[in-house]
Amino acid sequence: MNRIYSQIAGALTLALVTGGCVVSGTNIDPITQPATLVPDTKTGVVLDRLPPPAQKLDVAVYSFPDLTGQNKPNDNFAEFSRAVTQGGSAILSDVLTKAGNGAWFNVIERNDLQPLLQERQIIQNTRTAVEGKRAQGLPALRFAGILLQGGLIGYDTNETTGGIGANYLGIGGNTQYRQDVVTVALRAVSVQTGRVVASVTTTKTIYSVLVQGSAFKFAKVDHILQMEAGFTKNSPATLAVREGIQLAVYSLIFEGVKAKLWDFADAPAGAAFMRALDEQKKAVNFEMVTETPSTAALAPPPAPTKSAM
Fold first, then answer.
1. Which is it for strands 105-109 and 196-220: parallel, antiparallel or unpaired?
2. Which range is least confidently modeled, 36-45, 152-161, 278-287?
3. Maximum Cα–Cα distance across the chain
4. How far is the C-alpha of 155 from the C-alpha of 157, rounded, in Å?
5. How far is the C-alpha of 65 from the C-alpha of 161, rounded, in Å?
6. Which residue spans within 221-280 are E strands per DSSP?
7. In sequence order, what are the beta bridge partners of 266?
8. pLDDT digits (tens, 9 = 90+) for 119-136
9. How far from the centroid of its chain's Cα atoms is residue 36's Cα?
10. Which terminus in the chain has less CB density within 10 A, N or C?
């Protein structure tokens, strides 16, 4: 037993020394990771590969708010942090600028317009102070023909929960999982008429998995050695929101093509993408129908009949 205590003491000493070196800056912390770009999603890759349009669209995003009103789920105490990101407009603007490798949208700045107007005023005042009446004015601001509106309209927690575990002779483990669903709504509004010309709603599932294992053994008659290990993996909620917005933009483009609001520059290439989207929708609808109980199963059983005497 003394040997075990000495090993534990040695491990603690090593951890303290290593931590001291990390804090002092003599070594690089092996746990930290460098900053990276946002990883690509499957939907984002497909959106970036869209064929170019016949004409680039001028769109404006004023806001894309969090309309869920949901806080982070916590079983122990009240959580005041929001369950989803508050930067939906920034994500939407970024997705729009990258759609079709940047060929689909001219995104007009409207989310934070005041600094832009103030900077233009400073430039104009400076030119007037230096050049007087001969000062050349700034070109007019570009205006948008379509407003993109909507937001994050739903965050359903614990849509599916479950787990499994087993223990035999003091050795065992268990796994638990949870699914949350975030819902995104996006619509295109004509500036000239105020009519909603296209509207889509998408969902994205967020997974959380917990894996634990434990074991114990009698080191002596009155001494128990117990060991536990585990990890938790949570899908990034912000990345899930991004993919939901990407799918919303992707679907909105195709809704506009169907309504003949805009079109692809290469009609055959655009038709191929349209067929692929229709096949995906049919597959999803077929899966939902097969998982839905039939009406016969939901119908009440027939009333018993009296036997003939």
1. unpaired
2. 278-287
3. 114
4. 6
5. 28
6. 223-234
7. none
8. 889 988 998 888 888 888
9. 17
10. C
User: Domain span at residue 217?
Assistant: 34-289
Residues in CB range of 247: below 8 A, 6 or more apart: 43, 184, 202, 204
Which residue, 187, 175, 226, 184, is CA-closest to 205?
Answer: 184
Q: Residue 69 belongs to a domain with what CATH number?
A: 3.40.50.10610
Give a yes or no: residue 299 inside a domain: no
Q: State mean pLDDT over 254-267.
A: 86
Query: What is the number of structural domains in the chain?
Result: 1
Q: How many other C-beta atoms can be found within 10 angstroms of the C-beta atom of residue 232? A: 10
CB distance 99 to 48 below 8 Å: yes
For residue 251, give the nearest of 284, 227, 222, 291 by alpha carbon. Answer: 284
Q: Which amino acid is at 304?
A: P
Give the pLDDT confidence score for residue 288 in this predicted structure.
52
Q: At what angle do helices 237-258 and 88-98 cross, to 10 degrees?
A: 50
Is the Cβ–Cβ distance between 255 and 200 less than 8 Å?
yes
pLDDT at residue 189, as a whole number: 93
Position 299 confidence tier, pLDDT thresholds 50, 70, 90: very low
Q: Which amino acid is it at 69?
A: G
